[in-house]
Prior knowledge:
Shape: elongated
Structural class: mainly alpha
Strand order of the largest sheet: 1-2
Mean pLDDT: 90
Largest sheet: 2 strands, antiparallel
Number of strands: 2
Radius of gyration: 20 Å
Amino acid sequence: MTLTQTLFEVIDMRSFSNLWFWIMLALIWSGASHRVLGVPFDMVARARRFGGQSERDLVDLVRINVNRLLHVGHVAGSWLIGVVAFILSSLLLLGFWYGIEFAQAVALLALPLSVVGAMSFATARRIARERPEAELLCKRLARHRFWVQLIGMVSIFVTAMFGMYQNLSVAPGF
């Protein structure tokens, strides 16, 4: 038996039965809901609670991240949309037409994250257009975070259901 055969036998390389996939799924959605438009959400809570310098820091950091996001969108937006569409359609085709489990797992991660990315860009455009004060900015970031968390919960639920189905369908005896 070769080293690679031993590794593949000891470590289950199927995505939905691999503990590392589920850890990565949890970490990705935890990170996505903690950083709203690139701003750590504890800064939003601190700005709401203490005001003053915390509010000014939040407004400055949001302005910097919004400008950065909008610059990337304006410079490479159409290319990014094309590349993301190509990658997502390739993953969906490989995963759900050809039945490649790794592509299914990556598609179930990437598809909702692309929705969050589009939502973040829309929120950044709205913030840049309206230039809200600190209180309204905190509310807007909290609302954005709520929707990111909701998409994350639905994504984790759908991935878990599909993963259980996959694991049960390849289990011996079924």
